[in-house]
Amino acid sequence: MKFKALLLVALSWVISSSAVAQKTVRIATGETVLMCSASNIASAYDVKVDNFYYNIIDDSYLEVTAAEDYDINFWPYFDAPALNVQHKINDYAGDLVIPESVRIEGHDSPLPVRAIGRCAFYNAQNLKSVTLPATIEQISEGAFANCGISKLDMGANDRIDKIPNWMCYECAGLSDIVLPSHIQSIGDGAFMCTAICELSFPDGLIYIGEQAFFGSALQKISFNGPKTRVRAYAFADNPLQEITGWECLTELEHMVFRNTKLKEIVLGSQLSRISFGTFNALKNLKQVICYIDDPYELQNDTDLSCDDLFGESTQDGVILWVPDQSLETYRNSTFWTSFFTDIRPLSQVGISCVKAVNPGAAKLFDMNGREVSDPRPGRIYITSDGSKLRF
Cα–Cα distance between 126 and 128 in angstroms, integer? Predict the structure, then answer.
């Protein structure tokens, strides 16, 4: 009898648990009331509204997520293989505009959509474009990785200051992106192996992570901030041909521009460190324009030679242009002559810069041709008559 009693108790517990799991939750969106089972609440998302999956965070805002959890380990080194893990196709598809808020029953007002969760759109092979609302404050790792997106518009957002690691990793069709105006950093592998061809970075950008654009389709980039640090392999293995705003760069780690199609390199006066192989395997290189007065300023590794910086790059006919007053010092430096045999003064090619003392009322333009009212120290500007000034 005791055994039968215990069995009945156990059965009643299972039945009651099942009943709880099948209870319904009412979610209101506009005039529509959706029904979902509480078993969904325990899955990868809390609620589904108008074909978007959300988690309710702190009962105060929503995070866009996926219908299921994706257990992805992104490979943190430059020659990482493509994501060949077989996962269920994420069912986000078409052109999506993420709403600013969603009405959930039990809340007096709509909950704002403030975050995009980890791998939220991962492997959404039928996704075409996504537009983010101004309310988004945080995007997590791999949010759009390995999906079919071709356009990502983040331009309406002024709250995001960081692009997360691997955000659009392996998005082979992504060719059109509008970055937030206030971002300060771009994470590791964020746009690795994408189809982006041209990009102008926001003024506030100070950091670009490892492999951020490795293996992508970049041909032209523009730096616009006061100071930017670039980590290893950030632009390696791109068909990169043109860079403006070199003067922004302060640190370049190893292999940053490896195997690109650059013909010209500019070493600005703010550059304090370059590392092994930074300009490795540049087969089209023709000239290096250097505005660094002290040729020993970049010799921050006693075991490093200039040949190590430009290893495997063509040496035939490559000219190093240096400040006139430092010409002989460069020519006598074993560091620089380990790679360059032709070192010339900047004045010969007409690209020397007069250090500005008092430019007066002269109009100044940056290297992209935009008028500038607040010139920054260390940067080069062009006057209306075409001359160049260094501040």
Answer: 6
**62: exposed, middle or buried (C-beta count within 10 Å: 0-12, 13-18, 19+)?**
buried
User: SS3 breakdown of the chain: % helix, strand, coil, rounded to 5?
Assistant: 10, 25, 60
Task: Check residue 303 and give left, alpha or beta (phi > 0: left; psi -120 to 50: alpha).
Answer: alpha
Tokens 């703010």 found at: 270
Token pair for 87: 């996962």
pLDDT digits (tens, 9 = 90+) for 245-266: 999 999 999 999 999 999 999 9
Report CA-CA distances (Å) from 171 to 51, 107, 174, 225, 261: 22, 37, 6, 27, 23
Domains of the chain, start order? 22-196 (3.80.10.10), 353-391 (no CATH)
362's CB contacts (< 8 A; 6+ apart) are 383, 384, 385
Beta bridge partners of residue 63, listed in sequence order: 55, 115
For residues 314-324, average pLDDT? 91
